[in-house]
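User: My collaborator sent over this chain with a note saying "see what the structure looks like." That's all I know about it. Can you take a look?
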Amino acid sequence: MVWVVSVQPLKPHLVMFWMLDFVVFKKLKSTWIKFGCWGASSGIGTETARVLALRGAHVLMAVRNVESGKKVKENMIKEIPNAKIDVMELDLSCMSSVRKFASDYNSLALPLNILINNAGVFPYSFILSNDNIELQFATNHLGHYLLTNLLLDNMKKTARDSQKEGRIVNVSSIGYIAAYPEGICFDKINDRTSYVNYRAYGQSKLANILHANELTRRFKEEGVQITANSLHPGVITTNILRHLGLVGGIFNWLSNYVNKSIPQGASTTCYVALHPQVKGVSGEFFADSNIAKTSEVAKDADLAKKLWDFSFKATMSNPTSLSS
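Assistant: Without extra context I'll predict from the sequence alone. Here is the result:
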């Protein structure tokens, strides 16, 4: 049984997605994977969970809205009667929720083969999380960072016991290029006066890439059989722009004519999570189910290490220390 956990909020062509769906994943049906998907109650998280459940993975959907998650599960069961799907509550913007989820999951003594960090927000204005951290950085990066750390021992044990490669997939975005010129503004995370919504989003997506890269470095040092990669799903119409009101609605309407569909966007996530060709590949950035080039700042090992240390302190100590 494959156990996967996937977290959700949020570029192959449609024909490529269906090729993956019917040709590749047919060969990947397995009885050893537990899949975790955060942010799986809508958008590409839902589609990712559906495809993986269809291919035999036991899927745990970690969602902020449990009722919505249960409805998604019911719909999937109707389509896939033998699907193994569970739903648990998780709010990645709240560290106490992340800790509770990880504690509850670990107490179940279930394995964890694949972790998909897929949640994301893009508010129009400056908002603080419950922990008094700028909402995009708190949700898109710190929540995933903390969750991954709290589940790592489980993943390492699963990889050891099963002798199967574990995989961590961070759903980032090409939008990382819009980050602040400094890359990560460590001393201005909570600076309301310098906040620019799209740059803050880019900063959080850059953090997703750097996080995967630093995980890769650490896994190689430890000799752990786990890979970590990041990806760009494509420009997709999802509810990530729900905080933008009318502007978000207009963008989503226009995007119907130029953007990828949700199934197209989910295909790269499914590819990185399960495809045999990705075995042993770590620390890479994917787009359209292929390794893609990134900017120099996204490859900066020193910046990745600094982000790791900063994130550790922010999640293991008093988060209000980030306040400006």
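A starting point for your reply to your collaborator: Residues 135-162 form the longest helix (28 residues).
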